[in-house]
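STRUCTURE:
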C-alpha cells in the first residue's frame, strides 16, 4: 500500500507539470528561456521549472515553480509575473 501511495504522490507532482508546461509553451511563442528538472525514485519525486521571455506582442513574463512528494507528504510553490 505504501508503494501505491508514493506512486500517486509522484503522479500528482509530475502530471500537472507536464500538462502545465505544454499550455505555457503554446501561449508564449516569442524569445525566452526555459529550464526544467524532474526526478522520481522509490522515495518520491521532485519537479522544478524556470521560464522567462517575451510573447510575440512584447509582453514580458517570468515563472518559477517547484513540487516535491515523498512518503511524508507533498509540497509545491510558484512565483510568476508579467507586464
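SEQUENCE:
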Amino acid at each position: 500500500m505504501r508503494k501505491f501511495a508514493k506512486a500517486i504522490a509522484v503522479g500528482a507532482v509530475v502530471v500537472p507539470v507536464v500538462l502545465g508546461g505544454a499550455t505555457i509553451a503554446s501561449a508564449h511563442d516569442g524569445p525566452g528561456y526555459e529550464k526544467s528538472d524532474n526526478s522520481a525514485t522509490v522515495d518520491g519525486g521532485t519537479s522544478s521549472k524556470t521560464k522567462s521571455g517575451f510573447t510575440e506582442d512584447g509582453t514580458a513574463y517570468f515563472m518559477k515553480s517547484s513540487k516535491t512528494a515523498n512518503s511524508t507528504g507533498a509540497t509545491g510553490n510558484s512565483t510568476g509575473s508579467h507586464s
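REMARK: The chain has a mean pLDDT of 81.
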